[in-house]
Amino acid sequence: KYPEAGTICLPGTHSKWVDVVDGKLQSFSTWMTGDLFKCLSQNTIFKEQILSSNYQEAAFLDGLDAAREAGPLLNSLFHLRTDYLFKKVGAREFHSYLSGFLIGSEIKEAAVNCQKVYLCGSGCMNEYYETALRAYGIQTITITADEATILGIKAVSEEKIYG
């Protein structure tokens, strides 16, 4: 159903990025964005900066903007600390700000020169990545995990029957 899919993102704890050309896998990479987010938000100085884990869209978008302008990730993470200390972001928003920053950092590197990305995942992860990709000027086509499962089963069964 999606033969034109070129760049595919499967968001999650370990996001996967796939590049397909003429129906053939060209590259595959995995990003530990979700694990890093959990580690940073629960086990570092950032833990003290988080009063709420409720999604704050404005803070998420601010985090995306910060990632777009950031240098190397490990150095830039400390800038998030100073953003908090100098009250650029508050404790109620920091969770979403950090999420936006990490997802934005991933997209900045994984989707270089992409104009369109096919997202395949479920729930809020699709929504976060869709928001981030659009903020970076990248068109998205979203496929739910349920739809992908059904299409995959159909393709496998047709291959076994007709292939």
Report on this model:
It is a single chain. The protein has 163 residues and is α/β, with parallel strands linked by helices. The chain has helices spanning 33-43, 57-69, 73-85, 94-110, 123-135, 145-162; strands at residues 7-10, 15-21, 24-31, 116-121, 139-144. Helix content is 52%, strand content 19%. It has a five-stranded mixed sheet with strand order 3-2-1-4-5. Strand 2 and strand 3 form a beta hairpin. The longest helix is centred in the last third of the chain and has 18 residues, at 145-162.
Task: Give a quick summary of the entry.
The chain has 163 residues and is of the alpha/beta class. It has 6 helices and 5 strands.
